[in-house]
Amino acid sequence: MDWARMLAYVTGTVDQELLARNEYLAAENRIMKAQLKGRLKLSEAERGALGEIGHRLGRKALAEVASVARPDTILVWYRKLIARKFDGSKARSGPGRPRMRGRAADHSHGQREPGLGL
Q1: What does the pLDDT look like over 85-113, one tens digit per residue?
Q2: 8 A C-beta contact, residue 71 and residue 59
Q3: How far apart are CA 63 and CA 103, in angstroms?
Q4: Is pLDDT above 80 for 115?
Q5: Residue 61 to residue 54: CA distance in whole angstroms
Q6: What integer best gives the mean pLDDT of the chain?
Q7: In Å, what is the CA distance from 19 to each residue of 13, 24, 66?
Q8: How is 50-86 classified by DSSP, letter by letter?
Q9: Would you list the domain boundaries of the chain?
């Protein structure tokens, strides 16, 4: 058996195993979702994770797979994740002038010392 044929066999076996795993997970998700009552509450981190994977899958594949939310909603979660990531909030400090350190900070509040007569 030449190496190309063996590689094709191994690749086909791996693909079949991945398809079987995906099929199992999809069936398990359907069963678990059927047992849930009401709306599923997701955290920001969970929405971000689903959005990131959904973006990699693409809208068409996401339409076939997604059951938690509509594909458009999941892609919005991804856009919000990216917007939060690059909004510059990590580089910003609090509003206003930066605080002073050291002895100058003790005398900079505009308060006059008692007994100066001013």
Answers
A1: 888 777 777 777 877 887 665 565 555 66
A2: yes
A3: 63
A4: no
A5: 9
A6: 80
A7: 10, 9, 16
A8: HHHHHHHH-HHHHHHH--SS-HHHHHHHHHHHHHHHT
A9: 1-37, 39-87
